[in-house]
Amino acid sequence: MVRRPKGGGMKKNYVKWIILVVVVGILVAVGLREVSAQQYFFFQGKVENLYKDQLTVKGNKGEIMYFAIGRRTVYLPSRLPGVGERVKVAYYLRRGHNVASQVEILSAK
């Protein structure tokens, strides 16, 4: 005959495992957040086109870049740029696409 302790030894082991899994999960989540910090890039030029969710900018050397824009994009000053206006775009890469974080409208020279 095998005697089992009355205190519920198996339940204590389950609680320890649950606590361990929760702690490890929190540590992994914090670590992933640190690893996924955005790296920002900058591009300056004239607005070629602004349509729905895309901004097209032509750089000083003639290169053209496309940026995804949306409700999280910040505009300085607080308005959309017009075609032909000079802008400085702060952007990051997401799934192979340039995503505009901030679009600063520069004053005319």
SSE topology:
Blueprint: H1 9-35, E1 41-51, E2 54-59, E3 64-68, E4 74-76, E5 86-94, E6 97-105
Parallel strand pairs: 4-6
Antiparallel strand pairs: 1-2, 1-5, 2-3, 5-6
Structure description:
- The chain has about 110 residues and is of the alpha+beta class.
- The protein has one helix spanning about 10-35; strands at about 40-50, 55-60, 65-70, 75, 85-95, 95-105.
- The chain folds into 2 domains: about 5-35; about 40-105, OB fold (Dihydrolipoamide Acetyltransferase, E2P) (Beta Barrel), CATH 2.40.50.320.
- Strands 3-2-1-5-6-4 form a 6-stranded mixed beta sheet, with no helix packed on it.
- The termini are far apart.
- The model has no long low-confidence stretch (mean pLDDT about 85).
Describe what is shown at a glance.
The chain is built from one helix and six strands. By secondary structure, it is an alpha+beta fold. A six-stranded mixed sheet has the order 3-2-1-5-6-4, with no helix packed on it.
Strand content: 35-45%
- Rounded average pLDDT: 85
Q: What's the tally of helices?
A: 1
Can you identify the CATH superfamily of the largest domain? Answer: Copper binding periplasmic protein CusF
Q: Note the gap between the termini.
A: 94 Å
Order of adjacent strands in the largest pleated sheet: 3-2-1-5-6-4
